[in-house]
Amino acid sequence: MRHKYQISLISDSTGETLDRIFLALKSQFSNFDYEKKEYVFVRSESQINKIIKKNKNRENSIILYTIVEKKLAKYISHRCKQEKIPCFSILGNLILSFSKLLNKKATHTPSAQHVLDDDYYKRIEAIQFSMAHDDGMKAEDVIIADIILLGVSRTSKTPTSIYLANRGYKTLNIPLVNEQSIPESLKKNPKLSCVVGLTTEPQRLVDIRKNRMNALKEKENTNYTNINKIEKEINDAKKTFTKYKWPTIDVTRKSVEETAASIIKIYEINKNNG
Q1: Which of 76, 123, 150, 245 is the most exposed place for a label (fewest CB within 10 A)?
Q2: Segments forming the whole domain that contains residue 66
Q3: pLDDT tens across 151-204, in order?
Q4: What single-letter DSSP state applies at residue 28?
Q5: Contact 238/199 with Cβ under 8 angstroms?
Q6: Count of domains for the chain
Q7: Claim: this prediction has a pTM higher than 0.70
Q8: Domain harbouring 239, CATH code
Q9: How far is CA 159 from CA 94, 135, 213, in A?
Q10: How many C-beta atoms lie closer than 10 Å to residue 70's C-beta?
Q11: Distance between CA atoms of residues 235 and 87, nearest Å
């Protein structure tokens, strides 16, 4: 009999960090049946008591928390032990270990990662840039982009651009219809910026495009979803990437995060090679 677990994520901030860690954690276990509840901006014992009360009579309850204030972190651990609820501090031991390694005392400040510093404004600027340069818009600005993504339609250019922007990279993406889609300045100087070509398997692209058209309730465009046409599109794109010696990534079985990680690696190599 499969158990359904009741997962409570408790954070003293927005909960974004904890949610991402939980997603990574649960991906390691197949057939993990759970119900998740998130509690954010938890900064008092009374809030914790209410959460514990809700959980103590629930079967298979598990609590994960990111509480950086020491007294409150100890309190939640103590209350969970009292009620025999399994609980895990996500950052506690890591902060302590870092503190010892750096020989510095941690501030234990909630939301410290959301401070309005230079990195924050860099991310905002990158997001604004990437949104203004989506799908071939303002392609002439290639010279001021950190990263340029090229690929045929529906190869995850936009979501990857937005993800990279959230990491602080000004990203411009261009749909590759043919070689004429590429700005002249980039063809004349292929190393003008960090250019990455995105490709995928033809049948996968057929499925994605058909789903896209169904979602938009549009009549099927035979050229847009024809396997032979798509194979030619992809082969032509690959030839273009080879011609200009641009690295390519096959996104068929990659998540946006995995694709972005590979792109960042390419960007860092280019940067180091000057």
Answers
A1: 245
A2: 5-114
A3: 999 999 999 999 999 899 999 999 999 889 999 999 999 999 999 999 999 999
A4: T
A5: yes
A6: 2
A7: no
A8: 3.40.50.300
A9: 31, 11, 18
A10: 13
A11: 52
Inter-residue long-range contacts of 71-79, CB under 8 Å, 24+ positions, other chains counted: 72/12, 72/43, 72/44, 72/45, 72/48, 75/45, 75/48, 76/10, 76/48, 76/52, 79/48, 79/49, 79/52
Strands 61-66 and 87-89: parallel
Task: Determine the distance from the C-alpha atom of residue 21 to the mean position of all C-alpha atoms in its chain, rounded to a whole number.
Answer: 12
Angle at 186 between CA 185 and CA 192, to 5 degrees: 105
- If we measure between CA atoms, which residue out of 273, 250, 274, 245 comes closest to residue 262? 250
d(CA 235, CA 131): 28
> Contact, 170 vs 130, CB < 8 A?
yes
Measured between alpha carbons, how far is residue 187 from residues 133, 171, 191, 211 in Å?
A: 18, 18, 9, 33
Q: List Cβ neighbours of 51 (8 Å cut-off, separation of 6 or more).
A: 8, 10, 39, 42, 63
125: tokens are 């600027």
Are 159 and 206 in the same domain?
A: yes
Q: How far is residue 110's CA from residue 42's CA, in Å, rounded to a whole number?
A: 10
**Type of residue numbered 224:** Y
Same domain assignment for residues 64 and 151: no
